[in-house]
Amino acid sequence: xxxxxxxxxxxxxxxxxxxxxxxxxxxxxxxxxxxxxxxxxxxxxxxxxxxxxxxxxxxxxxxxxxxxxxxxxxxxxxxxxxxxxxxxxxxxxxxxxxxxxxxxx
Length: 105
Known about the structure:
Layout: H1 2-17, H2 29-32, H3 34-104
């Protein structure tokens, strides 16, 4: 009964005593060369600058569209207010005409 346990302990001891092989990520030549690292950083920086420029341009275009829509809406509102005022005036005139006709009849 104890002999099985002893064998397991020996196996565990053998496994533990095996030399550990250290596995490190393989380094690529570009990671070891400062010039390559700098070039990669510069490329990424250029891409980010370009993306920032594009996004700023897109933001400006969207802001202009919104401003244009606001101006168009304001213009439409003013036009509608003018039309409503004119229609009210016409209706009041027609009412006065009818009232005069009824009173004189």
